[in-house]
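Let's do one together. I've listed all components of the complex below, 800 residues spread over two lines.
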Amino acid sequence: VINAGKSQHNEDQACCEVVFVERRPSPRGRLPSREGGGELDGGFYFHYWALFDGHAGSGAAVMASKRLHLHICEQLRDLVDILQDPSPPPICLPHEARASPAEPSQVPLAEDDEEVPNNAVPRFHLEKEVSHESLVIGAIENAFKHMDDQIEREWASQRLSGGCCALAAVYLMGKFYVANAGEAIIIRNGEIIPMSREFTPETERQRLQFLAFLRPELLGKEFTHLEFPRRIQPKELGKKMLYRDQNMNGWAYKKIEEDDLKFPLIYGEGKKARVMATIGVTRGLGDHDLRVFSSNIQIKPFLSCFPEVKVYDLTQYEHCPDDVLVLGTDGLWDVTNDKEVAGVVMEVLTSYEPNDPCRYTMVAQELVVRSRGVLKERGWRLANDKLGSGDDISVFVIPL
Amino acid sequence: VINAGKSQHNEDQACCEVVFVERRPSPRGRLPSREGGGELDGGFYFHYWALFDGHAGSGAAVMASKRLHLHICEQLRDLVDILQDPSPPPICLPHEARASPAEPSQVPLAEDDEEVPNNAVPRFHLEKEVSHESLVIGAIENAFKHMDDQIEREWASQRLSGGCCALAAVYLMGKFYVANAGEAIIIRNGEIIPMSREFTPETERQRLQFLAFLRPELLGKEFTHLEFPRRIQPKELGKKMLYRDQNMNGWAYKKIEEDDLKFPLIYGEGKKARVMATIGVTRGLGDHDLRVFSSNIQIKPFLSCFPEVKVYDLTQYEHCPDDVLVLGTDGLWDVTNDKEVAGVVMEVLTSYEPNDPCRYTMVAQELVVRSRGVLKERGWRLANDKLGSGDDISVFVIPL
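Okay, and this is what the predicted structure of the assembly comes out as:
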């Protein structure tokens, strides 16, 4: 829902797809050992849901909603055979291009053809075993990076503006992979299982301070990497003030010096915390053009486009028709907490037949409506008379 | 116990003290609002236990065991009044030195004397509230830093060698502060409560890779910040190999380039994981002289002397005579896990009267003896016939 007349356009964007990942054609055809994989021999499907919560325009959110799943698909294409083979993934793959001119001493083709990836090279005393699951996580992580790179190219050529938080759920081979910057929960048998972790200037303080400490030039001459509990006044020079640097979780006093009068890299608390007084989110796509107000200092180096990927293995649990995965943008979570969401899920689902396919849509709709509230004289109000969300609100309710 | 003839000297060191933190004399005497604090008006006591697990010599461990509590005391001295005052800590303290020549426009002394720290300066729209607890954490963190600096000075002048992991428990005003690099658990009513988190090249991989990525010169020309699941052979150039960089938790394939043939910054698994093939711990004191074997590359920039401090509030729970905090060095934890430790604690404590003060010492002794094992033909063996610890073993068992 486009909310509260904040904008003409919805900065939230969404996407829901079933994507077929087709095996990449090999120059030599498929490896012999990979044949006979059954009906999905040419590839596999994944199910995909994603929400994009845009800011400073909808450009990045619109583009990501149309492209991110294609980047995930592209990353997975190299893994079609590997993920369908129950044996551990090969650590090293054979050459892609045969007989490249850079390798005159290459072994003859005939011998090379018998190479089985996992056994081809002598094992050293150490070889880490890498799981299939962590390959999917790596594919999703790199897909986000490629998505961010594409937005950058588009921004450079088309002036595509803004940035977005992305929350994507990929269902593949029995497991949900939830890549977050955004909030997601699973409700199973009434129990709430968090599928995301919050990324804010506060939760990522030490990473950002560490970067600024190592690369002070990124702060221009206007910011300090130290955190102070409030702004310092010039007349307080020489007094002792509480601070913490990138190594500390606790606080200590330091004597205020000239440099400490600069604005802190991280400033503010909770929803109001900002990086260089500019942005309140630290993970997401886009924002390549974002600069500190009336300055040339770039914000992008402090933002990460890499998501944290959490895995939920559906095959490990029994699920009933009331068990769901809920994805939502800030418009939902800012005014409705986990427990309230779980309550609405239960309430609405029990009022429909378990086999009615509409019941999940009705939950999503109810969550949106309740978070928006009702327009009264004093603005949009929730049932408890608190202010409704002034943000765009998007919700997916996915039966497990 | 000096174990298995590994060394003539015990590289484990320990310290146990009751330390009085005396208020620092103020040039103007105490602030009027702080008077009447009762019997501890001149300061307060803390109880202190610490274990230091040395490597490459016992120099750093010996020095830290004699000095760390004094550094903690020194850091706390500025906080004597503040910690005893139940109101929130002042964010800014008045000038220490009055009428410094750098501040000609200073307000008259009479007016300044009435300054009450927390109210003296106008509040801005934001002011973070900082807890007493986080001041103690900050004091301990900075004490570790000062300890490390002192070891560095000593190393430069006296050739004090080696490094150590430090595990310190401070009991202050009803709370235990456990500063770890080392393992500690609380056993309460048979339940195990971890009071430490493991710091290894593997758990700290992303921090180390991030540093190496931003400061590639720290790697010399011999290491790469990328992680690979095994060493790469020169003849594998151009093949695709699993890797992960500082942004990834998953794994992906990349084409092997010349640079990837360098040795990985983090290499090995579990107990065998090493930073630049040299050291298996990433947090601790000392090691200022540590270099990669037969090279000039320094390890110290990758090590952190800052501990993680966990807090346990004794006043929040009821405790019985069998509830204890167990501190141990690797010699204990390498061969005896949490559950086995909890089992020994229960077993030994129940065999003594609850008011027998020896019973905790007997637990510690039993834990050491069991972890060492018995000398048989095939070396030191545990009760389960596995190899006993070849390391020094130290244990504190502290009744809660």
